[in-house]
Amino acid sequence: DAGVIQSPRHEVTEMGQEVTLRCKPISGHDYLFWYRQTMMRGLELLIYFNNNVPIDDSGMPEDRFSAKMPNASFSTLKIQPSEPRDSAVYFCASSSRRASGGSDEQFFGPGTRLTVL
Amino acid sequence: GENVEQHPSTLSVQEGDSAVIKCTYSDSASNYFPWYKQELGKRPQLIIDIRSNVGEKKDQRIAVTLNKTAKHFSLHITETQPEDSAVYFCAARKLGQFYFGTGTSLTVIP
Question: Residue B54: CB partners within 8 Å, gap ≥ 6?
Answer without folding.
Answer: B66
